[in-house]
Structure formats: structure tokens, C-alpha cells
Amino acid sequence: MLIKGARVNNLKNVTLEIPRGKLVVVTGISGSGKSSLAFDTLFAEGQRRFAESLSSYARQFLGRMNKPDVDGIEDIPPAIAIEQKVNIKNPRSTVATTTEVYDYLRLIFARIGRTYSPVSGGEVRKESTADVIAWLESRDPEDRFILADLSWRTRTDHTELLLGLKEDGYNRLWADGAPAKIEDILKNRQDPQDAWLLIDRFHDLEDRQRLLSSLSDAFSKGNGLIAIATRDGIQRAFSSRFERDGIKFREPDDYLFSFNSPLGACPVCGGLGKIIGISEDLVVPDKTKSIYDSAIACWRGDKMGWFRDHLVRLAPKYGIDVFKPWCELTDREKDIIWGVHSVPGDEESLVGINEFFEWVETQRYKIQYKFMLNRFSGRTTCQSQPRLQHPQRRREPAYQPRHGHRLQPRRLDVHSRRTQHRPASTGHRAPHKRAQAPARPG
Fold it and tell me: 277 and 237, same structural domain?
């Protein structure tokens, strides 16, 4: 951006060039014209040009904006200004919410965001009649059947279901891989092992209107799940439900990305990003010390020193340098030290710090352990995600570490790019409930 001849307030015909796309700080003594340059010149001109791009109807609500006293400003984008003095201290207020940029970011992710399954990495999408037609157009013509799901295997009221379908005007089922009349099934009084509702039969796509109507009826009757079958069996199933890999997902909307909404806020911290928990600064007060030199304060002393000795003994197995200062340890090493690795009955499994405090929590009826919890508790970053676990103990899909993000875990499934998403591996220090206490000397 090039500013020529700025003469606002204390500025005396100032000409300067400011690079775009970089963080630029304006400094100077009181009265040197810092605010005049940043707010009264740059911001005023950027706001004025943005207002001129709006319609005449929108400009009538903005009021009059005077042009700053300057010869010219080149290559200036629309500008946002944040006042230097903030009188309201609200933990839910951020730069994005103050400038209302957050509202646009929420809308962007809600509109263009794509949801991916954390299990398989495949995109989660709702299929429609158009998807079925497109799939059929890529196949050779032959006799095909449109089937609607009845959840036959999970229901016990088969007779009532068949009578209701007959009253609705349906006469056939796809029972155990072949068409069958509902009336014959009721007469034989022998229920098939599996059954779908047969909506229609077709050979080609000439009668497009009838095909679309049948597909719509199938999606409606099958509660969003249909199938296309031939004489040889079911070829493919289609679903208009927003689910994949047995997981039902919430469709992206702007509330999902709002930490001020109960629908999008993290269930642990309520959208604040901070919780009262075990503080790393209290657990490791002197980060220049190494693990061997008792950097972990809760593992000092004769009794609790067993956990430090256990870590030192198993450190080579997990690739941890116990002689390196804590501040020089890699994130991977710290995640392992904080994580969950112990397996009941396995003396060669590591006991992490979080695991240790979960055991202390079970012993808090004893005064010394209650004191220990209070001593090492403080305001810390919310990291409410499944953490690094032993493979035998993992019971849920893996997510990336959040590190203080305020939103629901499910928003991690939504991405803004059309790329193949891979299931994320965990490696962070989040609380996790465990059933047994770590093994230690009595």
C-alpha cells in the first residue's frame, strides 16, 4: 500500500509504503501521529471505499464518511479496525467475534464444508434420486427392481407390518433374494429371513417420470434407505441419511461452528476453551530440569518416586530422552509422558501423568491425595479429545488434538477442501476415564 501526502492531524505531508500480507506495527512517541495514520487515514479510506462498493440502498444506513486529508492511497483493501481500549472483559469475545468476521467464517464452513468419516476417511453425503439415475445411466439395460428398506431383521411385528403395507396398496416384497407376494407370505405364515418392500420394476430409463416417482416413494417408505436389485440379487444400496460407517453425523450449519451456541460449544468447557484441571505449569514448574532430575513435581519423594523410576526404566522403549531438559522435549515425547499406555498385568507398560492423576482421583478420600489434587489443579487448556492410547484400549474413532478449540468434537469431521481425508491419529494430553489404577508398590 502506498500513502502519498498524508496530512491528517499531526501528520505533516507523510509519504510511505506499507507491505501487504504482513504484520506491520506502527510505533512512536505520544502525539507522533500513530493513530492518525492507522485509524484516521488507512482505516478511514479503506472503510470509505468499501462503502462505495455497496448499493445506494445499503449506503443510506451507513452515514456520511469523509475522505481523509491525503493526496492518494494506492492498493488499499477493505479494512477492519479494533479500538485500543476494551472496557468489557468477556471470555467469549475474540478478535473474530468483535469484528464479526467469525459470522462469515461460520457461514463459509456451513456452506462449502464437507463432512468425512473419522473411521474410513470417506466423504459423508446424502444420496438423492439424481444419484440413482446417474448410476443407472452408467449400467446396461436389464430388468431391475426398486426396493425400500423395512428394517425387517430388527422388527418383530412382521404380520402387522405386512397388513399395513397391503392396506397402503403394496403387493410385493423382495424376500430372501427374490420377488414374493405379500398375500402368499401371510398365507404360508412363514416369515422370510430378510425382506425389502418392492416398489417397482423397470427395464430401461425411457419412462423417466415414473422412475423418479418410484424412487421418491422408495426413499420415503424406506426411511431414506433404498436398493436396486436384479434377478441375481441386490446390486447397490442408496441412502439419503447423513451417515457413514454406522455413524450418524450432524449436517453442517452455522450453529455447529459457534462456540456461543449449545449446539456447537465444546461439552467440556462450554465454549470457553479453558477448564479447571491438571496444569502442566504446576506439574512441571521448572522446565529447565530433566525427567531424571525430577522435573515432574508430583513424582518426587520416596513413595511417588516409584513412578519417576518406572518412567526412567521404560524411557528407551518409548523413545524418550530422560536426560534432556523438559523444555527441549518434542511434542511426541511429552504426549507419551502424559498419555495412557498401561495394560493391566503388564509391568512393561508406561504409566502416564494423566493416568496417574486419574488414579489419585480414586484415592481422594485420603487427605494426602486430596491435597495433591488441589496442589496441581489450575486453569488449563481444554483438550477434551480421545488421547494417545494403547491399541488394545482404543474403543472409539481417533480425532486430531484440539488444543483449546472451543467447538464440538464433530466439527473436526468437516473440511473445506475436496480432498481425501485420512483418519487422524491421536497424540495429546486429554483426560480419559480408566477403570483400574496404575500398578505401583504398596
Answer: no
Length of the chain (residues): 442
User: pLDDT tens-digit profile of 143-189?
Assistant: 899 999 998 888 888 888 888 988 888 889 988 888 888 888 888 87
Mean pLDDT value across the chain: 79
Number of Cβ atoms within 10 Å of the Cβ of 194? 14
Q: Are residues 282 and 340 in the same domain?
A: yes
Distance, CA of 205 to CA of 14 (rounded, Å): 73
Q: Are 124 and 115 in contact (CB under 8 A)?
A: yes
Is 153 buried (19+), middle (13-18) or exposed (0-12) by CB count in 10 A? exposed
Helix ranges, 242-389 (H): 280-283, 305-318, 331-338, 353-362, 367-376
Cell representation of residue 189: 405364515
CATH number, domain of 130, equals 3.30.190.20
Rounded Cα–Cα distance for residues 217 and 197 (Å)? 11
* Confidence (pLDDT) at 405: 58
Q: How far is CA 386 from the centre of its chain?
A: 13
pTM above 0.85, yes or no: no
Question: Distance (Å, rounded) from C-alpha 365 to C-alpha 31?
Answer: 62
d(C-alpha 402, C-alpha 385), whole Å = 7
Residue 228: its pLDDT value, please? Answer: 92
Which of 198, 222, 241 is the last residue in one of the domains?
Answer: 241
Which residue has cell 502519498? 4
Range of the domain at 162: 126-241
- Mean pLDDT across 331-354: 79
User: Which helix or strand (DSSP H or E) is residue 96 part of?
Assistant: helix 95-98
